[in-house]
Design brief:
Structural class: mainly alpha
Number of helices: 62
Bound molecules: zinc ion
Low-confidence stretches: 1014-1067, 1212-1396
């Protein structure tokens, strides 16, 4: 078969190949056995020929029959040998082997590859040509590399064996080469195919092969290298190759150390350097660096820990030599390649040295030796070396294959930057692993040098383009920085970090958020050792700002503020802003951080510096507003607020702006309040007599209803703005990005405005404010605010036009049920105790008004018990006790016919106790004082009605309240008190005092200013003169009084003063002033004044003042304007029923006055009309609250009198000179009291009075006493009258007949039942009345009683009873102001009991 056919067959089918195998084997055998002299060369030639055909075949049929090809090779290879004459044949033979090997050295033919490699190795190594070794070496290197790859894919023993075989084979080759002794100058370059040019992982495989096998290669290798005999030039060229191999060997050593730490170290790198020492001894410079490297590595590879005692000294010495070399040679050779190569290799050695992973590190012993407590000097030297290397690296001008390849980007050109960063990492690494105790011993200079290295590394890395967040080297660098920070346990260590804080900020652009946060966390922890507290705080705040979870961030901010050590007067936000490591926050993040910070400051440390600090960084006006709320004493804040307020007022507002306007307006209110509070009026100067002087003295002339108006408007605007904010919630949604709404602030300020409105007394506006608070607090679940709001309503209403009160009260009840059992636990504040108990009190009042008296009573008892549980309240007169008592008073006073009430002390007793307790008031919580003022205001109004209708005074409460009101500039409230007082004065007929009040009221209501020109002394004399005159004429009067009354008979409806003046020529009061305007009553009814134009409440006040003024005219017998006035007043009432209804009780006062006037002017029919309609009104539901029973009595009496007056005058009865039966000492002001009292005790009254005893013991005829128990039963008769109030007027009989008829007309049964009731009442009442008081049964001055009285003999009454203790009885049957069912006299108190 021809050779061509063989070639064809080899490329053919398997069968063909098999046949080719046979052919080749037979042909080759034929040649071998040819017997010619050229058998060897022929065989070789044939073999070469066949091998080349195999090569082609392999390529053509894609290795299909590689096994058969191996058979061919196996049959020939053992039998071929080099031919001495034709060495090129051997080269071709090796070349073919090399080619075939490369062809089959692949995954698919791995078995054939091994077989083929074994066949090659089995043959003896023949090196006939100079380059033959390269072919062998190439096969071995290929084999090593291929199986190195295999072992990486799957570590099998086969692969490992193949690697060992390859090493062994290479050893054999090197030995053969050694024998050849032929100068293999390129060997080192070839070797770098498996060393310097291979990856780390490949070197690792080499390093982990059994030492025995490795040595079989390395030993002959190093021998060969040592004797390579290269020329100087060659050595120069090979220098980088040696360095490259060296680096590989260092790594192999390292891996081998890890693998076989126990075995004798190979130290291949040192072996290589040792053989180089031999070859390079002629080249001084290169040899020197080799020497340096040798000693340096030798030290690094120290294995014997016993040597480490000297290690530090040696290392310091060596670093000095190295630094010296670099600094001196460096200058001369900086541009030469060998120097650059060496420098780069040295940098890489450093990198390897600092790669310390795990304990099995080949440099472990070195690092241990370097460490220790006395290691500062060695480390200093080490950092100096690194510093020196960095300086050298900066001058690297050209590239070198020896440089470490960039792991981030294969095209990376930043060799220099990488070098410097690597060195920086090395320094960081070295320090990071150093023991913390030793770290602390590093000198400041060395520390600075180290910081400089790290700083420079950071500077470089941030401009290295290939560096990204995930770069291993960068992560490693950061890990060590973390580790350094983590180890900080002293100020010295922290000092290094302080130097690094600024550089680290530049890392931000490179690091991931997570890494940066970790680093910040460690730095903040290390900050606790910082000698600069502000920096420490900044670090902490930086970490806080870097936290992404808002809840955790807030928690950390709170932790920061709660730590007392953090005393920097700056807020977290500001500290973060100032921090050298500040986080680059987005606007939204900044906003969030700021808002959380603000909330935390408000909650934990609301100090002025922190607030100021927050203020400096505020981002929105809303924040300004929230902060400024707490800095209301700061004038700059107030100015800013005012600017903001004025700005906001001018525009159409968004929801948030509404909120801001409300908050800033509250500040304005408080500012105004404070201005008002500046007037300090001493309590002792506030007396009834000196009020006008007081107003002038304390410059209250510009205080009036108009001056109060801005505050009212402000507070109303505040509520309107809050309301707008609240109501628009759905229409105009606010995301939390826009603003973090501070609802607590909203509630606080809304309460502030509501309280202002309440305390100023503007009910309509206050209702609206509290209603808003009710709604908001219910929505927010703010229980105590809800209770406060509902308390407001419960204390005034039983139902409200604006909301379903019953429903809300029910909710309040649920809250109270839930709250009261736990109210004593520690987390409830005192003001919350107060709020809860006050709410219960007001609820009692609410239920009492709804006629649920038992429930009310139970609630009050409950409050009492609850209050007793608070130690701080027991035995004190706190606002809860006062409210409790005042509620009882109100219930008692407004309710009638109730058995529960019968057991309660009488209203006067209660008022007395209250007055006494108010004096002893103790403030327990912050809400107490405000509640007290409100309580007093209501109390003065209620008690005035009560006392005035019963003809006595309670000036003390009014005086105390007035002082507070004037001091606080609360005009409307002042007017209310003055009206109350004037009312009392009118009732007592103290016209001068009433006039004084009127002047004051007119002043405060902007009707007529108090003029300085007005002679104060004269006016004050006016107050006293009538009194003197009165007392002077008293005796005279007494004698005439009864006769007058008798003369006038049933028509004696005139006030006693009027009678007095008729007889005692006392000059009428000069009501008129210079200003004629004062005369015109109609101005009270004209709604022209701008202040009152839009306020029903003020119009009502004006109206009431008008009524009082009219009354004053009437009492002074000036009737000119009264007709007009009363007709206008009635028009006024009809004009606006809603407004009229707001007048409440005053709706009854007007007809009482009017009827008086009409009767005085003999317009009886009109008087009857007026009284009848008023009586209808008194019974109607229109008056929501119960009205004082006295109005009805009065009206009834007037009605009856008018009806009688309408009758023809009866024949005058027998006149008998009688002593008037009444106490005649009117109008005694509290100041005059002692004088009056002593006088009363000295001079015996010259008139007869009735006492309980007198009426019972003697005097009156027994029949009459039988019929009318004058001391206890009068009420019955009055009630009887009231029952008949709507009955048709009686026919006009003669007086006596009428009397009899009236009496007899009483149904017997009714009389009987009523008398029993009264007795029962008396029995109940008597035991609880204190002994010193005289409990008086309701004294009725009913028609029948008076008539019957007239039948009694006055002389019969004992004259011994004293005025003060006795019960005086007015004989006058029909009285101008009847009433006084319950009059108690406290002989010690300043209150005078008066009966008329
Ligand atoms: Zn790079």
């Amino acid at each position: 078969m021809s050779r061509d056919e063989i070639a064809k067959q080899l490329r053919g089918t398997r069968k063909e190949v098999e046949s080719a195998v046979k052919t080749i084997q037979s042909q080759f055998n034929h040649i071998r056995n040819g017997g010619t002299s050229s058998v060897a060369s022929d065989a070789l030639r044939y073999e070469i020929n066949i091998l080349s055909k195999l090569s082609f075949a392999l390529q053509d049929n894609c290795h299909k029959h590689a096994d058969l090809y191996c058979d061919i090779v196996a049959s020939m290879l053992p039998h071929v040998e080099p031919c001495a004459t034709k060495p090129e044949f051997w080269a071709r033979h090796l070349g073919s082997l090399h080619y075939i090997y490369h062809a089959i050295c692949r995954e698919q033919t791995i078995e054939e590859c091994q077989r083929f490699y074994a066949l090659v190795n089995k043959q003896r190594v023949h090196l006939k040509n100079k380059t033959d070794y390269k072919l062998y070496l190439n096969i071995h290197i290929r084999h090593l590399y291929f199986f190195g790859q295999q072992i990486q894919i799957q570590p099998t023993s086969t692969a490992k064996n193949q690697l060992c075989l390859a090493l062994q084979a290479m050893g054999v080759l090197f030995q053969a080469m050694q024998r050849q002794n032929g100068g293999y100058s390129e060997l080192i370059a070839e070797l770098n195919q498996i060393l310097g040019k291979r990856s780390n992982s490949f070197l690792k495989i080499l390093g982990t092969l059994p030492v025995a096998y490795s040595n079989k290669m390395y030993e002959p290798l190093f021998k060969l290298l040592a004797s390579s005999g290269s020329t100087t030039d060659e050595l120069n060229t090979q220098f980088p190759e040696y360095l490259s191999a060296l680096l590989a060997l260092i790594q192999i050593d390292g891996f081998s150390w890890q693998q076989q730490a126990e075995e004798a170290p190979q130290q291949l790198a040192l072996q290589l350097l040792r053989c180089c020492r031999e070859s390079y001894k002629e080249l001084t410079s290169l040899n020197y660096v080799m020497q340096l490297l040798y000693y340096y590595l030798k030290l690094l590879f120290t294995r014997d820990s016993a040597q480490t005692t000297d290690l530090k000294r040696h290392y310091i010495d060596l670093t000095k030599k190295l630094i010296n070399f670099f600094e001196h040679k460096g200058a001369a050779h900086a541009k030469e390649q060998w120097f650059i190569d060496f420098l780069l290799v040295f940098v890489r050695v450093q990198k390897l040295l600092h790669q310390r992973n795990g304990k099995n590190n080949c440099f472990e012993v070195f690092w241990q030796g370097l460490g220790g407590t006395d290691s500062a000097e060695t480390y200093t030297a080490h950092f100096e070396l690194i510093q020196c290397l960095i300086t050298m690296s900066m001058d690297i001008s050209s590239n070198s294959p020896l440089a470490a390849s960039c792991t981030n980007d294969s095209k990376c050109q930043s060799l220099r930057k990488h070098c410097i960063f690597t060195l920086g990492c090395c320094a960081t690494n070295a320090y990071s692993f150093w023991q913390p105790s030793a770290q602390a011993t590093l000198q400041k200079a060395a520390q600075e040098s180290l910081a400089g290295i790290i700083h420079y590394a950071v500077d470089v890395v941030k401009v290295t383009k290939c560096m990204v967040a995930t770069s291993a080297e960068l992560l490693n660098f950061v890990w060590h920085l973390n580790n350094i920070a983590d180890k900080v346990s002293s100020g010295t260590q922290m000092a290094l970090l302080q130097l690094l804080v600024k550089p680290l900020q530049q890392l931000r652009s490179l690091l991931g958020d997570q890494e940066m946060r970790q680093l910040l966390r460690r730095l903040y922890k290390a900050g606790s050792y910082c000698d600069n507290p502000e920096l420490a705080a900044q670090l902490q705040c930086t970490f806080i700002a870097a936290t992404t979870c808002p809840a955790r961030q807030f928690q950390q901010i709170c932790v920061y503020y709660c730590n007392a050590k953090n005393s920097i007067p700056k807020c977290v936000y500001e500290l973060h802003e100032m921090s050298p490591l500040g986080n680059p926050l987005t606007t939204a993040q900044r906003r969030k951080l700021y808002e959380l910070d603000m909330v935390a400051v408000m909650a934990h440390r609301k100090t002025p510096p922190l607030l100021q600090s927050l203020l400096r960084h505020r981002q929105t006006d809303y924040q300004l507003v929230l902060l400024g709320r707490h800095m209301r004493t700061d004038t700059t804040i107030l100015n800013r607020f005012e600017e903001l307020r004025l700005k906001l007022q001018k525009k159409r507002l968004t929801r948030l702006e509404q909120l801001m306007l409300a908050h800033v307006s509250v500040s304005k209110i408080l500012e105004l309040d404070e201005k008002n509070q500046k007037t300090k009026i001493p309590m002792k100067e506030v007396t009834e007599r000196s009020l006008e002087e007081l107003c002038i003295k304390y410059n209250l002339l510009d205080v009036n209803i108009a001056s109060e108006k801005p505050r009212v408007q402000l507070a109303t605007a505040v509520i309107a703005a809050f309301e707008a904010f609240y109501n628009q919630a759905d229409a105009e949604r606010l995301s939390s990005d826009e603003a973090l709404i501070d609802w607590e602030a909203l509630i606080d300020d809304a309460i502030c405005a509501a309280k202002a409105l309440s305390s100023m007394g503007y009910m309509q506006q206050a209702d609206r404010a509290w209603l808003l608070l009710l709604r908001i607090s219910r929505m927010l679940g703010d229980r105590f605010t809800f209770l406060r709001a509902i308390s407001h309503f419960m204390s005034h209403y039983t139902q409200h036009a604006l909301f379903d009160m019953a429903h809300e009260v029910e909710h309040a009840q649920q809250l109270l049920d839930d709250l009261w059992p736990q109210i004593r636990s520690d987390h409830f504040l005192k003001r919350q105790h107060t709020t809860l108990m006050l709410c219960l009190c007001q609820m009692a009042l609410y239920y009492a008004r709804l006629d649920c008296l038992s429930h009310a009573q139970l609630l009050l008892l409950h409050v009492e018990r609850l209050r007793d549980q608070f130690q701080e309240r027991v035995g004190k007169c706190d606002v809860v006790l006062l409210t409790l008592q005042s509620v009882r008073f109100r219930i008692c006073y407004q309710q009638r016919h109730c058995s529960i009430l019968a057991r309660m002390p009488t209203v006067y007793q209660q008022l007395d106790t209250l007055t006494e307790n108010v004096r002893k008031f103790t403030s327990i919580s912050s809400v107490d004082l405000g509640a007290l003022y409100m309580l007093l205001s209501d109390l003065v109004r209620d008690s005035t009605e009560c006392t005035a209708n019963r003809l006595c005074e309670l000036p003390n409460m009014s005086i105390s309240l007035l002082q507070v009101l004037l001091k606080s500039g609360l005009v409307l409230r002042t007017v209310e008190v003055l009206i109350s007082w004037m009312w009392t004065n009118l009732r007592m007929e103290c016209m001068d005092k009433a006039l004084s009040k009127l002047r004051l009221i007119e002043h405060f209501l902007c009707i007529q200013p108090l003029s300085l020109a007005q002679p104060i002394s004269k006016s004050s004399s006016l107050i006293t003169t009538p009194m003197d005159a009165q007392s002077k004429h008293m005796t005279e009067l007494v004698g005439k009084m009864l006769s007058m009354q008798l003369e006038q008979g049933t028509a004696s409806v005139e006030p006693i003063r009027k009678q007095q003046q008729l007889t005692v020529s006392l000059p009428p009061l000069k009501i008129q002033s210079q200003n004629a305007n004062r005369l015109k009553l109609q101005r009270y009814l004209q709604e022209t004044h701008p202040v009152i134009r839009d306020s029903n409440q003020l119009q009502c006040i004006y109206f009431i003042v008008g009524c009082f003024h009219a009354r004053l005219y009437f009492l002074n017998r000036e009737y000119d304007q009264l007709d007009d006035f009363y007709s206008m007043a009635n028009d006024w009432l009809q004009r606006d029923t809603e407004r009229s209804n707001a007048l409440g009780h005053m709706l009854l006062v007007l007809p009482v006055y009017q009827a008086n006037y009409l009767r005085a002017t003999n317009k009886y029919r009109q008087a009857i009309e007026v009284t009848e309609s008023a009586l209808k009104l008194a019974k109607s539901e229109q008056l929501q609250q119960r009205v004082d029973v006295n109005y009805r009595y009065n009206l009834l009496l007037q009605l009856r009198t008018a009806q009688l007056e309408l009758q023809p005058k009866p024949v005058a009865k027998t006149r008998r000179q009688q002593q008037p039966r009444r106490a005649l000492q009117f109008n005694v002001s509290p100041e005059d009291k002692p004088k009056e009292k002593s006088k009363a005790s000295k001079t015996k009254p010259k008139f007869t009075i009735y006492t309980e005893d007198s009426s019972l013991s003697s005097g009156s005829s027994p029949e009459e006493n039988k019929r009318f128990d004058l001391n206890s039963c009068q009420l019955i008769e009055i009630i009887d009258l009231s029952d008949e109030e709507l009955s048709p007027p009686l026919p006009p009989p003669p007086l006596t007949a009428a009397q009899v008829k009236l009496t007899k007309s009483l149904p017997r049964t009714a009389q009987a039942t009523r008398s029993t009731r009264t007795r029962a009442q008396k029995q109940l009442e008597t035991p609880i009345v204190p002994a010193r008081r005289v409990a008086t049964a309701p004294n009725t001055l009913g028609l029948t009683s008076s008539i019957s009285r007239r039948n009694t003999t006055p002389e019969d009454t004992p004259k011994t009873t004293t005025v003060t203790r006795g019960r005086t009885r007015r004989q006058n049957a029909v009285e101008e102001q009847p009433v006084t069912p319950l009059v108690k006299m406290d002989s010690m108190s300043t209150r005078r009991r008066q009966r008329n």
